[in-house]
Structures are given as structure tokens and as C-alpha cells.
Amino acid sequence: MKRILRLLKSRSKAFYLLIILLGLGNSLIYSGILYFINQAITNQPVAIWPAYDWVLYLSIIAFSAACNIISQKYLIVLTNEMLVNYENSVLTKVKHATYEKFEKMGKQKIYAALGDSWILAEFPRTFVASANTLIIVLCSIGYMFTVNVPVAATFTVFLVLLSIGFIRSGITIKNEFSAIQRYQDQFYGYMTDFLDGYKEVKMRILRADNILGGFIYNNRAAKKKLSIQTYTKDTIFGFISRFTWYLLIGSIVFLFPRILNFPIAEMTVCLLIVLHMLESMNFFLGNIPFYFRVDGALKKMEDLDQQVEDFRTADMIEKVNLSKEPFESIVFENVEYTYFDEHNSLVFSLGPVNVTLRKNETVFVEGGNGSGKSTFVNLLTGLYIPQSGNIYYNGEKIDLSNADAYRDKLSSIFTSNHLFSENYDEFDIREQNVQLSQLIDMVQLRNILRIDTSKNWFKHHLSKGQQKRLALVYSLLENRDVLIMDEWAAEQDPAFRAYFYQEIINRLKSMGKTIILITHDDRYINQADRVIKFEEGRIVQDALLKPLLEPQFVG
Ligand SMILES: Nc1ncnc2c1ncn2[C@@H]1O[C@H](COP(=O)(O)OP(=O)(O)OP(=O)(O)O)[C@@H](O)[C@H]1O
């Protein structure tokens, strides 16, 4: 419960003021009602303004209604604020993550952490409702003490024991709810495979049968079994509480009159009090498991925070800009990068890489599958920071402090390029934009692209190859000196591929771009100024083709 206390501490003073206000309003109305009933039963006038008791009664109701309306309004605002703040804080951390951390963690965890936020959003409302019912219970007991001390004392002991029982059962149930949550997380993983791979699922009966029958249905069956078990336990505790109330009512009616001097009027008032607080007490006790679930959700969020520790580190590092000089060179000096698996065994190692990429060069990067080209691209684009060695941009060393600024100097089109649904880059998409118009002609999308005027953005119902062409247009609209393309031409048809290597590359050169192209297209190698070849994570060839110099070989 430490986590819940921390959450409560983070609330504003207004939150506690609200609880006091609500408590005041409700204790007034509940004690007031009991008092009025008691006076009516015992046929006594109320102590203040007996002639206008109904005015007093209505005033109490009006005051309590006002307290409740104000507090509920405040709670709605608070709840929504809390939810949005939490979502924003998670996403801000993700924004400041290093790409490596993001890649390792996977988007699944982020969805899960956001998915749990609803329970936190429920927290203030439930907390205030619990505080409210607690006040009712305390007022009722307090009032009972004024009616009959032994009965009230017995009753208090009973409530304390019942609460202890509920807290203990809450702890057991909490662990089972965590297990249910784990099934849910696994389920979301299968759902991603099922929905993202829907085409592939459709294409094979065995796969379709297994993904549903073997994995999803089994997961659902296990989750159902545990849910039935847990919710049954939860319900049984609820029943126990309700039925012990009946025992208590029975003891007021049958036991106390036999063992105590218990006048009928006192018995009636005590019974009314017990019936009056029955619903509140059940609500209060019934919500105890909720707090354990909130605690579980907070723990999950803390774990996420732990995992993204360097999200904050990267955030705290003071950002540094690079000099505004035009691009001259990117230098790799003994750069090494190694992937490890979850058991810390080496998976693949790149480097040491020593290479200098110069202004206006067109460099083709080649190599077999798994030779390390994309890893090299991730380092080149500043998405990975070298584990050893250094990268220099125009002589300035790149590290976490200036990696954002470094990435901002480069245009990149990745193999699995994503086209955004909105114009986040604030590009000028109007038809009058001459640069845009020329680029659209260059990639031959003139009669294909449609502008969504409401979004000031292109509609993206395009084929894979067309999407890559549009990605090239967007990259060139960024107007940066260096253009990095990872297997850009792979999805293009042979005619457009030839046009890309023979025409577009020349156009890009004439624009003064420095081009780094990862490619398997050997037949267009003559378009490169330089060819770098990777094998098993090392550069095995670095050949200058233009200007015609002797090829250089790196062993
Ligand atoms: N995130 C990762 N975690 C662990 N290993 C990885 C990761 N990314 C790549 N690898 C491994 O590193 C090696 C090099 O991968 P990389 O993607 O750099 O090759 P590539 O030359 O781009 O291959 P391809 O031509 O097939 O795209 C591969 O053996 C791959 O399994």
C-alpha cells in the first residue's frame, strides 16, 4: 500500500479539502437523518427550532446536496486530468527513450501500461466514495454509542474483525488478479499476431487453426478458469460479509434483549442504524480488493519506469546542438556494436568499423543478408550509440547529448518505412509548391497522389512501391544534405528501378545530396562513387569508383 500512499501524497491540497467538505456534508445528513428518526420514534421534539424542524431537515439536505455536487464535479475534472497526465508522462518518457531501449522493450509493454491507466483514473472517485462511506459508518457507530454502549462496542469489534478478514482475503485475491493480468498481456501479444498478420493467417489453415485453437483459445480458457476461481472467491467474501450482518441483526433482535437491559426503543434505533449503514459498509469492504488492484497497476507502472530508466537519463542530459556549418563528413572510428540475447549470449557483433563518408559522395553499401548493413545504418543515423569507438559529424563527436541534433541533420528512409497519417512535419503540401510539384513528377506519382484538404496531407492508399516513392518525396522536402536509404528500390518494378538508379540518383547528386544507399542491386553499381561491402559485421571492401582512383581494399 506504500504505492497508494505515494499516489495520495501527490494529490493537491484541494483533494483533501474536498474529502473534508464531502465528509462534513454527508456526516451532517446521515447523523441528521438518524437524529430526526430517533426523535420521531421516541416522540421528542428536535432540540433547535422545534417548530421549524422540517426547514432544518430541508436545509441539511440542501447543504449535503451542494457538497456532493461540488465534489463530484471536482472529481470528474481530477480523474480526467490524472488519466491524461499519466498517458502524457508515459509517452514523454517513450519520446526520450533511446531507440535501443524502445526496440528491446517493444510496444506491447507501452500498450499494457497505458491499458492499466483506467484503474488509476477510477482511483479518486472510488477513494472519495470509500472515505464517504467510512464517514457514514463512523457517524453511525458514534451515534450508536449514544444509544447503547455495550451493543455499540460489540458492533465495533465485529466491524474491525470483518475488515481484517477482508484485507487478508484482498491480499490473496490480488495475486490471482496479477496472474489474470499476465494472461491478458499474453493475449494482446497473440492478438497483435492475429490482426497484424491477418493476411498470412488467412493463407494457411494450419496457422489459422493454431493461432486461434492452439494459442488464443487456450489462453482464454486458462484466463476463464482463473477468473471464475478468483471472482467466486471475491463473491464469497462479499456473501460472508452480508450474511454476518444478518447474524448481527439477529443478535440485536434475539440475543441482546435476553442478556442486556435493552429497551425496545433502543433496539429499534440500533436496528435502523445497522440497516442504514449496511449498504455503506458493504461498499467499503467490497472496495478493498480494488485498492489491491490499484496497487498492482502502480507496481506495473513502476516496473515500466524501472525498465525505461535511461528514458529519464536521456531526458535529463542537457541537449547540445551541432554547429550550423554545412555537411562535410561523417567519420566512424573503431565503432563496435554487439547484440546480446536475454541470457547475455552474443548474437552478432559489428565492427570495428573505420570509415569516412564525405560531402557529395554517392556510396552504395552492400553485403549478404545478416552481414550488418542495417545495424550500420542504425549507427549512422544515430539511432544506436556505439558501444565502443566514436562517430564524428563534421569533426564533432556524437553522444547522447547531441544525438537528437545529429539525427536532425539526416534524412533517412528505412526498409520498413512508416508513412504518417498526419502532416507532423508541417510540409507545404499546396499544389503551388514548385519543389513539391517537381518531386512528385520525379517519382512519377502525378496522377496517383490525392490531397486530403481537411488534413493538408496526402491520402495514403498506395501500393508498397508507391509508398516508398512518396517517402522519398517527404525526405527531400526535409531539405537536408545527407540522404540515407535502406534498400529503397527493393519494392520498385524493374523499369522504375532502372529509372531510379540512372535518373533519380543523378538528380539527387545535382541537388548536392550526399547519398548513402544500402542495396543488393549489383547491376547499377556504376552509379556509385564508392562501394562499401560488409561481411559478418566487418567492412571487407571500400572501393572508390569515381573519381577513378585505384580501388581500396580493407582486409
Ligand atoms: N535487434 C536485434 N537484436 C538482436 N540481434 C539482431 C537485432 N537486429 C539484428 N540482429 C542480428 O544482427 C545481424 C545483422 O543484422 P542486420 O539487420 O544488420 O543485417 P543486414 O545486413 O541488414 O541484413 P539484410 O540484408 O537481411 O537486411 C543478424 O544476424 C541479426 O540476426
UniProtKB/TrEMBL annotation:
<dbReference type="InterPro" id="IPR011527">
    <property type="entry name" value="ABC1_TM_dom"/>
</dbReference>
<dbReference type="InterPro" id="IPR003439">
    <property type="entry name" value="ABC_transporter-like_ATP-bd"/>
</dbReference>
<dbReference type="Pfam" id="PF00005">
    <property type="entry name" value="ABC_tran"/>
</dbReference>
<feature type="domain" description="ABC transmembrane type-1">
    <location>
        <begin position="17"/>
        <end position="203"/>
    </location>
</feature>
<keyword id="KW-0813">Transport</keyword>
<dbReference type="InterPro" id="IPR027417">
    <property type="entry name" value="P-loop_NTPase"/>
</dbReference>
<keyword id="KW-0472">Membrane</keyword>
<dbReference type="InterPro" id="IPR003593">
    <property type="entry name" value="AAA+_ATPase"/>
</dbReference>
<feature type="transmembrane region" description="Helical">
    <location>
        <begin position="243"/>
        <end position="260"/>
    </location>
</feature>
<keyword id="KW-0547">Nucleotide-binding</keyword>
<protein>
    <submittedName>
        <fullName>Putative ATP-binding cassette transporter/putative ATP-binding cassette transporter</fullName>
    </submittedName>
</protein>
<feature type="transmembrane region" description="Helical">
    <location>
        <begin position="151"/>
        <end position="171"/>
    </location>
</feature>
<feature type="transmembrane region" description="Helical">
    <location>
        <begin position="15"/>
        <end position="37"/>
    </location>
</feature>
<dbReference type="InterPro" id="IPR036640">
    <property type="entry name" value="ABC1_TM_sf"/>
</dbReference>
<feature type="transmembrane region" description="Helical">
    <location>
        <begin position="272"/>
        <end position="292"/>
    </location>
</feature>
<dbReference type="GO" id="GO:0043190">
    <property type="term" value="C:ATP-binding cassette (ABC) transporter complex"/>
</dbReference>
<keyword id="KW-0812">Transmembrane</keyword>
<dbReference type="GO" id="GO:0140359">
    <property type="term" value="F:ABC-type transporter activity"/>
</dbReference>
<keyword id="KW-1133">Transmembrane helix</keyword>
<keyword id="KW-0067">ATP-binding</keyword>
<feature type="transmembrane region" description="Helical">
    <location>
        <begin position="127"/>
        <end position="145"/>
    </location>
</feature>
<feature type="domain" description="ABC transporter">
    <location>
        <begin position="330"/>
        <end position="554"/>
    </location>
</feature>
<feature type="transmembrane region" description="Helical">
    <location>
        <begin position="49"/>
        <end position="70"/>
    </location>
</feature>
<dbReference type="GO" id="GO:0016887">
    <property type="term" value="F:ATP hydrolysis activity"/>
</dbReference>
<dbReference type="InterPro" id="IPR050095">
    <property type="entry name" value="ECF_ABC_transporter_ATP-bd"/>
</dbReference>
<dbReference type="GO" id="GO:0005524">
    <property type="term" value="F:ATP binding"/>
</dbReference>
